[in-house]
Specification:
Layout: E1 7-9, E2 21-24, H1 40-49, E3 54-58, H2 64-73, E4 84-86, H3 87-97, H4 101-104, E5 109-113, E6 128-130, E7 138-141, H5 155-163, E8 168-170, E9 176-179, E10 182-185, H6 187-196, E11 201-203, H7 209-218, E12 227-231, H8 234-244, E13 247-251, H9 257-260, H10 270-280, E14 286-288
């Protein structure tokens, strides 16, 4: 992983010869939660034609099979990538195994905060989904109940959880995302507020090491493989890649496009990007305006 000044590139084709495989983020890189970005399928096709294996690592709080199914609905063919790892899958495996001490202490009765589309987290599990804080042993937060809810809507609930000292599982550390062009909060914003209040939160997903360990086990390219991560979030993709010692390309036209004053497909000024990296204490290998070939 380089700590020297990053390169500004116009497409992955400029540097892909240095790498054996690629790990892609999804939301903000490949699609916006509704549709693929115009350049993403051509880029994935070009990677396949170049013989570069691709794995997906997403902070989606649901089973990996649900994520791949949704991508097929978007027109992203399954043969364009290999392993697909969702943070929800990492949490799901832990919930099923219950070998980790934190998970082992969880009871059967769970209160869920999040949309119905995340119910795959309970598949084949001996749990009872309850409706009230009083009945719950623990809480799963996969996101807001409604897409455009503010964090403040959950303040009373979080204080009620804290009063009972209920543990919270959050399989999506993202604070916000852009869905169909509109900014919405994610599970991490709600769980993060609970943690601020003093609550017990277990995080799964980027930037935590468990996410990279899980992905690299499935995407076994050997200890000497040269891997490139492509992501758009400083706090998850870039932080996680830095921690894992992996080269990373920041898609500047993703979640940080507005603060960098650079719409998707354009590169920001070095001054703005340097300021963002300095403020977060992170470093990148490449800056790219869009995930493109």
């Amino acid at each position: 992983m380089r700590t020297a000044p990053y390169e500004m590139i116009n497409g992955l084709s400029e540097v892909i010869g240095k790498y054996d495989a690629v790990i892609l983020d999804l939301w903000g890189v490949v699609h916006d939660g509704v549709d693929p970005y115009p350049n993403s399928i051509p880029a994935m096709t070009a990677l396949k034609e170049a013989g570069i294996p691709v794995a997906l690592l997403s902070n989606a709080p649901r089973r990996s099979s649900v994520v791949t199914g949704r991508m097929e609905e978007m027109g992203i063919a399954r043969d364009l990538y290999g392993p697909a790892v969702a943070s929800g899958e990492i949490a799901y495996r832990q919930l099923v195994d219950r070998t980790d001490p934190w998970y082992a202490k969880l009871g059967r009765k769970v209160l869920m905060v999040g949309p119905v589309r995340d119910m795959s987290m309970f598949e084949h599990q001996d749990v009872e989904i309850v409706k009230t804080v009083e009945d719950a042993d623990w809480v799963l937060i996969t996101g807001p109940n409604e897409d455009f809810d503010p964090v403040s809507k959950y303040e009373d609930l979080l204080h009620a959880l804290l009063a009972r000292n209920l543990p919270v599982l959050c399989p999506n550390p993202d604070r916000e995302v852009i869905r169909g062009g509109k900014r919405i909060i994610c599970a991490g914003a709600i769980a993060g507020r609970y943690e601020e209040l003093g609550g017990n939160v277990r995080w799964e997903g980027k930037p935590f090491a468990s996410a990279y360990d899980f992905c690299l086990q499935m995407f076994d390219k050997g200890p000497d493989a040269r891997l490139l991560v492509v992501g758009d979030s400083i706090s998850t993709d870039i932080a996680g890649s830095n921690n894992a010692g992996l080269d990373v390309a920041l898609v500047t036209g993703g979640i940080h496009a507005a603060e960098l004053d650079a719409p998707r497909g354009t590169l920001p000024t070095r001054e703005k990007l340097n300021a963002l990296l300095a403020a977060t204490g992170r470093h990148i290998t490449y800056a790219i305006g869009d995930f493109c070939w």
